Amino acid sequence: MRFRHLNELAKLCADEGLTIGELMLAEQAAESGHPPAWEFAKMADYYAVMKDAVKRGLTEDTTSRSGITGLDAQRVAAYNGAGTSNLGIAGDAMAYALAVSEVNASMGRIIATPTAGSCGIIPGVFVSCQERFGLSDEHMTYGLFAAGAIGYVIANNSFVSGAEGGCQAEVGSAIGMAAGALAELRGGSPAQAVHAVGLALKNTLGLICDPVGGLVEVPCIVRNGFGAVTALAAADMALAGVRSVIPSDEVIQVMLEVGSAMPDKHRETAGGGLAQTPTGKAILEDLRSKRAKRGKE
Q1: Residue 197 lies inside a defined structural domain of this protein
Q2: Structurally, how many domains does the chain consist of?
Q3: CA angle at residue 290 from 286 to 291, to 5 degrees?
Q4: CA 20 to 30 Å from 114, out of 53, 178, 228, 240?
Q5: Domain Serine dehydratase-like alpha subunit: where (predicted)?
Q6: Is 142 a domain residue?
Q7: Distances 113 to 48, 157, 294 between C-alpha atoms, Å
Q8: Is the dihedral of CA 16, 20, 24, 26 positive or negative?
């Protein structure tokens, strides 16, 4: 790749008159050796999987094997559809993000963006906005390339793994990727998209990874729902002209600093946070008991 930082990415786009998605497609093709059309078709297939996961999460039984989670996406969608929600399109994004995350928890097929633990945020944001604004699959696929470019920068300068940097690395990265890509999808400049990333990431700094029972269910799934809403807000701020006073590349460096300083118990070990509450411990013991019974059968 010819860029390693977001400011370099924005400058390349400005110099060459390309969107982030267009530039990333060209860069990916050059790196892989595959024609751009091949790379585009592959990404389009990924988007189809995302849309299918949204549909499945809203129409099928997504009760997880543990029995802890499932069907909340359908509850939120019904509530939002009844006209009682305060959120509007954000309610759709939330429901869709929950849907994909519940499909993941119930062993369904998803696309890790950038991880399975944060798989609902980009589909939730993309599919809800595609429906609202009547955008084409082709347009959304370019958006995925834009999200990929942002994720590439974050991964190479900080973390995208909860085990390394806490949930700020998983959910936070996905929110930043979704926000920047959405800003571009809605007509924003590369510079505005980059500001959206910084605005989004600043709102998730320090978020710990504390999976109850060691499962990617609680609080992971609801964080995907909230994350989708945050991404929408960050994109709208950037499109309205709000700038990230701290440059986005510097925010990414802070994510690295904070994640590195985070105690191990708050980095996907289930050794702290919600996982170690009385209820969290009780859930873990119940899971262990069920596993022991299955092992004897």
Answers
A1: no
A2: 1
A3: 115
A4: 240
A5: 16-275
A6: yes
A7: 14, 17, 33
A8: negative
pLDDT at res. 89: 80
**pLDDT score of 291:** 86
Buried b vs exposed e over 237-253: b needs ≥16 C-beta within 10 Å? Answer: bbbeeeebeebbbebbe
Query: How far out from the chain centre does Cα 129 lie?
Result: 15
Instruction: Report whether 102 contacts 221 (CB < 8 A).
Output: yes
CA angle (40, 152, 218) in 5-degree steps: 100
CB 250 within 8 A of CB 200: no
pLDDT value at 297 more than 90 = no
The alpha-carbon radius of gyration of the chain (Å, integer) is 19
pLDDT at 34 over 90: yes
Tell me which residue range forms the domain holding 155: 6-191+206-234+243-296
Cα 124 from chain centroid (whole Å): 9
- Token couple for 65: 């094997």
- Residue 279: inside a domain: yes
Alpha helices in 106-161 (DSSP H): 121-133, 137-157
**Tokens encoding 171:** 């959910």
Whole-model pTM over 0.90: yes
pLDDT of residue 85: 87
Q: How far is CA 36 from the centre of its chain?
A: 25
Does a structural domain hold residue 176? Answer: yes
C-alpha 161/C-alpha 267 separation (Å) is: 9
Amino acid, res. 247: P
| Tens-digit pLDDT profile for residues 234-283 | 999 999 999 999 999 999 999 999 999 999 999 999 999 999 999 999 99
Tokens of 161: 């793994």
Task: Give percent of the chain with pLDDT exceeding 90.
Answer: 95
Query: Residue 209 pairs with which residues in a beta bridge?
Result: 267
**pLDDT score for 294:** 81
